[in-house]
Structure formats: structure tokens, C-alpha cells
Amino acid sequence: MASGKPQTRPSVRHPSHNHPLRGHKAQVEDEIICSGCDLDLIGASFKCSKSECDYFLHKSCFELPREIHHKSHPSHPLTLLYSPPYDHSTYTCNGCGEYGSGFTYNCSICQYNVHVGCVSMHETMKHEEHAHPLTLLYSSPSLEGHIFTCDVCQETMPRNLWLYYCQKCDYGTHLHSCVADEEEEPKKVGRGEGGRGVNGVKGGRSSENSELADMLKAQREMEKMQIALHLEMQRAKIAKKSRKHMLKMI
């Protein structure tokens, strides 16, 4: 005779969270953010078994290895951390230059951090605006002292950030899409107790999208101003030398 008790789904444990997790299938309309990678969560995932705790993980984030060797940082292995290092609430990704508040692959020796999503970027990709495949580079292809500009958004790119590049055409783009950011409705954020919760408190990357975009834009504008000032000073020096040379010839 079958038991009348409701069957409970089996739970699993993950070192990133204090409570058991259960399998979950997230839908687009749920508008959930993964507590690991800070990205939209759709499909196979895990959620906290506690009804009052909004902690979610992609299945792929749940299965991330604790240590990897990555081409971007060949000197040391990278260790998976489940929260930002150095007792900070956020970190800056050395791959894309954007902030992160969830998991990171970290080198404690070099204070090097990479989003778990950036670590998984393909080594080649096809861009709709370019005829040839683009190759992932871990720094700017331009010579020291030269400026490299994204061929999609026309913004100056810092030398140390990753990019996709076509050597044949000297064509390069930011690591992630360069489309203009648009304001979005706040999404339900998977953070769990003591973490980045709902009600707009310390949301994931999507809920902070507008603020981070403004900060990055301001940073890039500052870099442009510094470059413009440097070029202006160089032009002034050249003009001064030219005047001195003309005076000597008189």
C-alpha cells in the first residue's frame, strides 16, 4: 500500500551555502540571478531548500572545479572562491574589467581575479559585424604607448583587459557585447541569508547593471581625457622644438 506522505526531492550540499539545495528548472519569466556567476539563470539549476532563502546556482556553477590552470595566468593555478576576496563585497575581474559579487577564480599570490563566466569564454568566436573568426587575447595587441580602440563601440580599451581580435584585419572588440546598456526592471536575486538579498539590497550583476555601466563609462571617459592630455602635451613639445629649430636657422 502506497504511503500517503508527500515525497520530498533529494537534497545536495554545496560548500558555497549553509543550507541543502534541491534540483530546480528555472524559466525565463522567473527572472532569477545565479548566486554564483551573477548572470541570468535559465534551465537546470539548484535552489535552496529553505523557502525563505533565495539562493540559486546554475548546474554548471554547482559543478565548477575548485582549481584550474588558465592561459591568462600561466604562472599560478586559480582557486575557486565562493565570495569576493580580501573581505570586500565586490571584486574587479581582470578579464573584462567589470565588477563581480559572486564566485571568482582567484590567485592569492598575484591578487588576480576572473569571473567564472569569463574563464569559460571560447578561444575563438564569430562576430556578426566581421567576416573572419576572432581570437581571444589576454591583453591588447597594440605596441607599448599605442592606443587600441574597440571597433564596435569605438571606446579606448585598457591594455591589460581581454578582447576578441582578428590579426589579419587589426579588428578587435571588447570581451562581452558592446551594445548600449538599457535600464531594466529589478530582478529577483539569488543571494540567500546574509548575502545579497531581494528588495533591491545589493543585487546581482543585472540589478546593478545601470550603476556599473555608469561607473565603467566614467572610467573610460577619464582614460580618454588622460590620453588626450598626453597627446596634447606631446604636440606642444614637438611645436616647441620646431620653434627652437626655426630660431636657430634665422
Automatic annotation (TrEMBL):
Keywords: Repeat. It comes from the Eukaryota. Residues 1-24, 186-210 are annotated as: Disordered. Residues 1-10 have a biased composition (Polar residues). This is Protein VACUOLELESS GAMETOPHYTES. The lineage of its organism: Eukaryota, Viridiplantae, Streptophyta, Embryophyta, Tracheophyta. Residues 15-61, 71-119, 130-175 form the DC1 domain. The keyword DNA damage does not apply. Residues 11-24 have a biased composition (Basic residues).
